[in-house]
């Protein structure tokens, strides 16, 4: 075979090629089109031709294997990752992919869960449970349900992507796998509790101690204080870090289906139960179950939950005998449980079972020393995410952030900073740029900017609406959704403020 002619033709077309040289024979195993010639590299080692874009460390690039029977998705992923500098191999055949993966020469494997003949889950089990390969496996599925994700994690998957997913989501997932940002990255998790106050320091120390045990934890605090973040951090620092963390919003569970959702059911247990259903306790087996807003669970389920905690046995609906589980339970509430007990809405014995280790999270207004560190953190995060112009907070803006009462707590502060990064068109945030959606008549923030003189709240709102309209190219639906108002209200405000309806 005239390898020189083949290479010359391919390079002339501006393609990237990959293959391995054996004497005078070259096997070309992949072609990625439409990249300009100056971006291509054929890197020769003693026996290998490596494909990739020109980078200082191209020869040391990471290797990816894509196993997916859908050609469009497979080729799209290949192009995206190749252009990022990864060395990518692809196959649409499950058996061939399994054979390639068993060679354990890849850093990351993207594995479609629904494949003809052999399922991706079967391949995952063979790779991780039977052969324990070193590659991190990312499951790709069009059926992005919690049960499937949990099952994949149980069998050794590093992460999962649900179709359809964006190029950014793909790149982020692969990058995290390459860097090893696994669930047991303890330093990363504890650092997400941002702040410099004594309260935050004590909270971090408490979390470290709690994580070393399997004791049940009850986290209490107002909405937006980060109860789920605390629960996740406890899980990530525990011996269960490589097992599932299953969050459940109890307020979103229909009362009629709550028992089935928590404990599961067998086929035929009730009308409509056409197949076996895994409850959240079964999904969290060997891991952590986080019951958020637990005060919303009815008294009947509370009695059964009490027995589950005591016996570590789950009463699956329609099954006569309970099932053993090994679950670390963390619960959270934004209500005063003792008041609920007095009102007859919560069992006192369950409260004592849940609050073996109580954690009380303070509202943001009671730890003002943490406001600016949190604001600076999210300013940096969203500036990079949106490639915005904002770099700094003015002194007046800082004073305003600290003086505001933050009824929505950290969540409201985070959303406020995100809006600033999206809408501000200059590098320093001034007082006139800030608008607090959580404010009421008693908690209005200062609106006097030392650099521009006296301005009114009307001026602030008008300017904020104008910036939002400009950002969304005067699309009324998107602007109204971003501002948290309906289209009719937005149009009324635009008319009252004499704001034009197009650029």
What's the gist of this structure?
This protein has helices at 3-12, 71-83, 94-102, 120-130, 146-154, 167-179, 186-191, 198-211, 227-236, 258-263, 280-283, 299-311, 337-342, 348-354, 371-386, 395-403, 409-423, 457-471, 476-483, 487-496; strands spanning 16-22, 25-32, 43-44, 48-50, 63-67, 87-91, 108-112, 136-141, 159-162, 217-220, 245-249, 288-292, 313-314, 323-324, 328-333, 357-360, 392-393, 428-429, 448-449, 453-454. The protein is α/β, with parallel strands linked by helices.
Polypeptide structure, described:
- The chain is α/β, with parallel strands linked by helices.
- The strands form six sheets. The chain has a five-stranded parallel β-sheet, sandwiched between helices.
- Helix 3 packs parallel to helix 4 and helix 18 crosses helix 19.
- The N terminus is likely disordered.
Give the CA-based shape: globular
Strand order of the largest sheet: 6-5-7-8-9
Global structural class: alpha/beta
Rg value: 27 Å
Topology, please?
Blueprint: H1 3-12, E1 16-22, E2 25-32, E3 43-44, E4 48-50, E5 63-67, H2 71-83, E6 87-91, H3 94-102, E7 108-112, H4 120-130, E8 136-141, H5 146-154, E9 159-162, H6 167-179, H7 186-191, H8 198-211, E10 217-220, H9 227-236, E11 245-249, H10 258-263, H11 280-283, E12 288-292, H12 299-311, E13 313-314, E14 323-324, E15 328-333, H13 337-342, H14 348-354, E16 357-360, H15 371-386, E17 392-393, H16 395-403, H17 409-423, E18 428-429, E19 448-449, E20 453-454, H18 457-471, H19 476-483, H20 487-496
Parallel strand pairs: 5-6, 5-7, 7-8, 8-9, 10-15, 10-16, 11-12, 12-15, 17-18
Antiparallel strand pairs: 1-2, 1-4, 3-4, 13-14, 19-20
């Amino acid at each position: 075979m005239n390898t020189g002619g083949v290479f010359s033709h391919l390079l002339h077309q501006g393609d990237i090629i990959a293959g391995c040289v054996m004497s005078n024979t070259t096997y070309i195993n992949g072609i990625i089109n439409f990249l300009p010639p100056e971006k291509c590299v054929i890197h020769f080692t003693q026996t290998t031709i490596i494909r990739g874009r020109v980078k200082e460390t191209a020869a040391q690039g990471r290797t990816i294997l894509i196993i997916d029977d859908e050609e469009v998705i497979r080729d799209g992923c290949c192009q995206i990752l190749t252009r990022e500098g990864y060395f990518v191999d692809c196959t649409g055949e499950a058996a061939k992919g399994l054979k390639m993966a068993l060679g354990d020469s890849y850093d990351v494997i993207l594995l479609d869960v629904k494949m003809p003949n052999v399922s991706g889950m079967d391949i995952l089990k063979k790779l991780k449970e039977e052969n324990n390969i070193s590659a991190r496996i990312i499951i790709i599925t069009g059926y992005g349900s919690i049960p499937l994700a949990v099952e994949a994690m149980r069998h050794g998957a590093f992460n999962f992507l649900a179709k359809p997913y964006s190029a950014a989501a793909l790149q982020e997932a692969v990058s995290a796998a390459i860097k090893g940002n696994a669930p047991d990255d303890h330093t990363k998790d504890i650092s997400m509790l941002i702040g410099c106050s004594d309260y935050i320091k004590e909270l971090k120390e408490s979390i470290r101690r709690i994580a070393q045990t399997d004791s049940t934890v009850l986290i209490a605090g107002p909405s937006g204080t980060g109860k789920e973040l605390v629960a996740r951090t406890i899980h990530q620092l525990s011996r269960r870090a490589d097992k599932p963390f299953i969050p459940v919003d109890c307020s979103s569970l229909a009362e009629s289906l709550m028992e089935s959702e928590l404990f599961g059911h067998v086929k035929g247990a009730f009308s409509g139960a056409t197949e076996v259903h895994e409850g959240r306790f079964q999904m969290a087996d060997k891991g952590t179950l986080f019951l958020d807003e637990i005060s919303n669970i009815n008294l009947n389920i509370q009695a059964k939950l009490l027995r589950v905690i005591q016996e570590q046995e789950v009463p699956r609906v329609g099954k006569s005998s309970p099932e053993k589980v090994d679950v670390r339970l963390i619960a959270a509430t934004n209500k005063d449980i003792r008041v609920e007990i007095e009102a007859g809405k919560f069992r006192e014995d369950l409260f004592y079972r849940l609050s073996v280790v109580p954690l009380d999270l303070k509202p943001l207004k009671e730890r003002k020393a943490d406001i600016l560190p949190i604001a600076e953190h999210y300013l940096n995060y969203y500036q990079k995410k949106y490639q915005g112009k904002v770099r700094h907070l003015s002194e007046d803006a800082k004073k305003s952030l600290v003086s505001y009462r933050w009824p929505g707590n950290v969540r409201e502060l985070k959303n406020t900073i995100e809006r600033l990064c999206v809408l501000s068109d200059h590098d320093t945030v001034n007082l006139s740029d800030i608008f607090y959606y959580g404010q009421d008549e008693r908690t209005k923030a200062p609106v006097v900017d030392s650099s521009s003189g006296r301005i009114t709240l009307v001026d602030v709102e008008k300017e904020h609406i104008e910036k939002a309209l400009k950002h969304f190219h005067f699309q009324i639906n998107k602007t109204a959704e971003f501002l948290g108002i309906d289209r009719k209200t937005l149009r009324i405000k635009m008319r009252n403020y004499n704001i034009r309806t197009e650029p």
